[in-house]
Specification:
The protein has one helix at residues 33-44; strands at residues 13-16, 19-22, 28-29, 48-49, 55-56, 62-64, 68-69, 76-77, 82-83, 87-88, 95-101, 105-110, 114-116. It is mostly beta strands. It is elongated, with a radius of gyration of 21 Å.
């Protein structure tokens, strides 16, 4: 396998003990960085689907399909609540949607509890 610069794709590179250096764009990276960047591309292509299998993307509108208790509060997000302009994130514990809900504020939701509007 031939090593290339991950930034510009040039073959003009050299190994400087612990780092690879590109002669054309002066980019420096560690030897294992190529694999990490390939893994990042896979996660960017990850599809987030709602409870019914519809693919969600940034800017979509969704509807909540189950009453959801808001952690640390007595508030509840009721069934049928519509949310506009969602953002797809790589969140913690399966929370892959960031949004603002009227009356509650900013929060993260799991895609399994919403449907595309």
């Amino acid at each position: 396998m031939e090593t290339r610069c991950p930034k510009c794709g040039s073959q003009n590179i050299y190994d400087d003990s612990s780092l690879w250096n590109c002669l054309e764009c002066s980019h420096e990276w560690s030897p294992g960085a190529e694999k990490t960047q390939g893994d990042d591309r896979d996660t960017l292509e990850r599809k987030v689907k709602d409870a019914f299998g519809n693919v969600l993307s940034d800017g979509d509108a969704i509807t909540v399909i189950k009453d959801l208790k808001v952690k640390g509060s007595s508030a509840v997000v009721k069934v049928g609540t519509k949310v506009k302009s969602i953002r797809i994130i790589d969140g913690v514990d399966g929370h892959d949607i960031a949004c603002k809900i009227d009356g509650i504020g900013a929060m993260n939701l799991k895609s399994e509890f919403v449907k595309k509007a």
